């Protein structure tokens, strides 16, 4: 496993990380979660990404029970807040009240005294960015959080956070978590250069487009897959995009790697990206994803991939 700095920070995270969205505390039973996390850590993954909204706190609880068996200082654990956790009008968003109450609940569920990274899961139009920056700065000074970040924030919002942090000598956002993969390159237009300019790291989610970039939909939609039971994939399961994945799968085959490993290696071609957050429901998934850290794509292969993907960003 290779490791990268989180933007300009001294913290280093594994190029391949593991997240708990739709898996831990939900579709994956606790015993399998323990095996998956154990194999991930044994394979060099040190970054585990969670959120309070994942299975309504259950993902944090399940991981908390498992991770107490490991050396805390060996791990980089993150969580997020923003989405409603109850019917309470203040149990949502990025108000100072919600931030301060949410961190304590998350730390309790995870059985830890601190988070390495705490993400604002979305931008909150009802809370001034100054309030968010000051609240996050206070958590860092209290030792409950080491770094804070954002997820799916637009460039002006990121710049605004950096501005307020500089004005009041606060800790600013150190990492942004956008969606990014071969079929969704929107992040390259504004978020990437904004983060580069501000020394903000990037940890990207959905690097395999929820399974589309594994190639399992190349010959249709198998029964029992996410594509057959959810509307979330309708924008990626178009004939045009699947045709591209079929071409990319041929390249992966020629390189002797899987389509998923090609997709992850392509993401890691960008030095600004600190880590690609992967999901896993089996140990085999974890092992295959870990192997992608060792894949380095030659420039000529990257150019061929770009010609297949086209300029549609």
What does this structure look like?
The chain starts with a strand and ends with a helix. Strands 3-4-5-6-7-8-9-10 form an eight-stranded parallel beta barrel, surrounded by four helices. Strands 1-2 form a two-stranded antiparallel ribbon. The chain is built from eleven helices and ten strands. The longest helix has 17 residues, at 239-255. It has a single domain (3-210, 263-296), classed as NADP-dependent oxidoreductase domain (TIM Barrel, Alpha-Beta Barrel), CATH 3.20.20.100. It has helices at 30-42, 58-67, 96-110, 129-142, 155-167, 191-198, 226-229, 239-255, 259-267, 283-291, 299-309, and strands at 3-5, 12-14, 16-19, 47-49, 76-81, 115-120, 145-151, 175-177, 201-204, 273-278. The protein is globular, with a radius of gyration of 19 Å. Strand 3 (16-19), helix 1 and strand 4 form a beta-alpha-beta unit. Helix 4 packs across helix 5 and helix 5 runs parallel beside helix 6. The chain has 313 residues and is an alpha/beta fold.
**Number of helical stretches of at least 4 residues:** 11
User: Secondary-structure element sequence?
Assistant: EEEHEHEHEHEHEHEHHHEHH
Number of domains: 1
- Total strands: the figure is 10
Can you give keywords for this protein?
313 residues; alpha/beta; TIM Barrel; eight-stranded parallel β-barrel; 39% helix
Reconstruct the topology from this structure.
Layout: E1 3-5, E2 12-14, E3 16-19, H1 30-42, E4 47-49, H2 58-67, E5 76-81, H3 96-110, E6 115-120, H4 129-142, E7 145-151, H5 155-167, E8 175-177, H6 191-198, E9 201-204, H7 226-229, H8 239-255, H9 259-267, E10 273-278, H10 283-291, H11 299-309
Parallel strand pairs: 3-4, 3-10, 4-5, 5-6, 6-7, 7-8, 8-9, 9-10
Antiparallel strand pairs: 1-2
Helix pairs in contact: 1-2, 1-10, 2-3, 4-5, 5-6, 8-11
